[in-house]
Amino acid sequence: MKNIRNFCIIAHIDHGKSTLADRLLEVTKTVGIRDQKNQVLDNMDLERERGITIKSHAIQMEYLHNGQSYLLNLIDTPGHVDFTYEVSRSIAACEGALLIVDAAQGVEAQTISNLYLALDQNLTIIPVLNKIDLPGAMPEEVKDQIIELIGCDRDEIIAASAKQGLGIDTILEAVVRRIPAPTGDYRAPLQAMIFDSLYNTFRGVEVYFRIFNGAIKAGDQIQCISTGLEYRVEEVGILKLQQIPQPTLKAGHVGYMIAGIKNASEVKVGDTITHVDKAGRPLGAMIKGFEEVKPMVFAGIYPVDTTEYEALRDSMEKLKLNDASLIWEPESSAALGFGFRCGFLGMLHMEIIQERLEKEFNITIITTVPSVQFHVIDQKGQLIDVQAPADMPDPNTIDRIEEPLIQAQIITKSEFVGGIMKLCMDRRGIFKNQVYLTADRVELTFELPLAEVVFDFFDKLKTISRGYASLDYELSRFANADLVKLDILLHNEKVDALSAIVHRSNAYERGKVLCKKLKEIIPRHMFEVSIQAAIGTKIIARETVKSLRKNVIAKCYGGDISRKRKLLEKQKKGKKRMRQVGSVEIPQEAFMAVLKLDD
Predict the structure, then answer these.
(1) How far apart are alpha carbons 410 and 539 in whole angstroms?
(2) Which residue in 10, 13, 14, 15 sits closest to 103, CA to CA?
(3) How far apart are the first and last CA of the chain?
(4) Which terminus in the chain has less CB density within 10 A, N or C?
(5) 214 near 191, Cβ under 8 Å?
(6) DSSP readout, 244-300?
(7) CB 21 within 8 A of CB 99
């Protein structure tokens, strides 16, 4: 065990994590020349398209140092705030972390956030200054930021360039020298923590785990402690670019297991695997230090073709296995039929899930307006969790509504402070603190309603700061707010999928804009279609889609006016009847329009 090192890479998005991982695999000859490509560990098409890491990936490397062979288990992590849960799982399986900081951009919000996650788990931190070859690099200034952040010595910071391959050997030596070997006893009862899992159509669920105590081999009878379900191990092995079966895995190892698990919902990330005695009792105890995921944004996902409902359910189960931060439950809507109410960690997470469902499982879906979870306290004092506008109780029974507030840390250049402050104030933010990290880098702290952040706050922030600002947030508390349910009525009928819960001060403006947008999208019918925005029974905005009209008097050449009037009256009666029995067709774009109100 003294020759094993388990470590992860943490950084802000786009600071060169995946490129550094590529270089480490090259130098340790884990990847053959024929398999070399950029972003080796990012095996999802979406990750390559967007140039970001979405999933954490584990891989084992062998490194020769002073004549000794070392096993290095690397777990690459995502950098975006929406995937913090992936990072926390990787950190729980490691003893050390490489903290990557871009020499041109310096310390950013997610760098600090991920660092605190690692320090909470008592990981050894190795600071790496990446991209030192860039023309805009400021190595000395950024080193000062790192020293201020983690209190290390200047000579502990490793200067590197992942693209050019500079400093890679120094990083590998530091991993061997500075990161402690795993502790544990391979003779003790088995304790292995599941940090990821994957669904394989032919072999069932593949479980990725880190062993803290004991050993595991094919043929063992094991149990997942939180579910109490027992399995017989068919295969265990280590993770290189391909899975390599092994006779036994012992304490300190990171590996995979196949145990004929057919049902995706049986495996829970963060669960502990142990052996069972003859009476079927678990021998090991649960490993602590794993948090339950807290979704921030909720939205409904519905199949466009209602016959694909079961296929969508299967796809959601397989996605949940691969992405433990996705939470879902079935729901139905009068406008869209049967679907699922899903919980996401943020708007990017929601986009990624949407794209994965369409690309990996070939299902066309409609996503409803994202909302957050509100606490509604009724007049009897009971608390009701409301995740969708349709769940909102009758306004007459509500005593008060509480909305979630987040503590947002925004790091930006000092020249953009004014614009960012205006953006946060417009979104009902409360200014908390301002700290100058360096002469021209500022950390702003705001308390913001989460409902104001989930739509396009991050996009606006990037626009104002020309891409320089970085955002990190955490849920702080629930507070009273003057919120109302904004309903959209088409042809005097409520469309639940277009409803939203908004602040009373924004309701009129939002209703007006939404009615205008829908007027452009909804096609003309043979009868007049009214589009109304309402709060309870009060109509606050209205637009009308004019009816298509056939020219019934075209065949009258001159002649008596009464003849024309008779034809027009007949048409009028037909229109009136059609208005009573006709139904409005709502195109798919209408549901998407709600997401892009500011365009």
Answers:
(1) 39
(2) 15
(3) 57
(4) C
(5) yes
(6) EEESEEETT-EEEEE-----GGG--TT-EEEEB-TTS-B-SPPPP--PPP---EEEE
(7) no
Task: Transcribe 568-585 into DSSP letters.
Answer: HHHHHHHHHHHHHH----
Reduced to 3 DSSP states, what percent helix, strand and coil does the chain have, rounded to the nearest 5? 30, 35, 35
Closest alpha carbon to 540 in 502, 503, 507: 507
Burial of 576: CB neighbours in 10 Å, binned 0-12, 13-18, 19+: exposed
Q: Which residue has the tokens 């391909």?
A: 242
Closest CA to 210 of 72, 92, 60: 92
496 φ/ψ angles, rounded to the nearest 5 degrees: -60, -30
User: In whole angstroms, what is the distance from residue 307 CA to residue 10 CA?
Assistant: 43
Residues 6+ apart with CB under 8 A from 196: 55, 56, 58, 89, 208, 269, 322, 324
Q: What tens-digit pLDDT sequence spans the chain (599 residues)? A: 778 888 888 887 767 777 787 777 777 777 655 555 555 454 455 554 555 555 556 788 888 878 788 888 887 776 555 566 667 777 777 888 888 888 887 777 667 777 877 887 788 888 888 888 878 778 788 888 878 777 777 877 888 887 777 888 888 888 888 888 888 788 888 888 887 777 777 888 888 888 888 888 888 888 888 777 888 888 888 887 777 888 888 888 888 888 888 776 777 777 788 887 766 666 767 776 555 666 777 788 888 777 888 888 888 887 776 676 777 888 777 667 788 888 887 777 787 788 888 888 888 888 777 777 788 888 888 888 887 777 778 777 888 888 888 888 888 878 888 888 888 888 888 888 888 877 777 888 989 888 887 766 777 787 787 766 777 777 788 888 888 888 888 878 787 777 878 888 888 888 888 888 888 877 777 777 888 888 888 888 888 888 777 777 777 777 777 878 888 788 777 766 655 555 666 666 666 666 555 54
- Report how far residue 213's alpha carbon sits from residue 480's, in angstroms, rounded to the nearest whole number: 48
Number of Cβ within 10 Å of residue 111's Cβ equals 27
Residues 251, 240: Cα–Cα separation, whole Å = 18
Structure tokens at 273: 């695997």
CB 83 within 8 A of CB 10: no
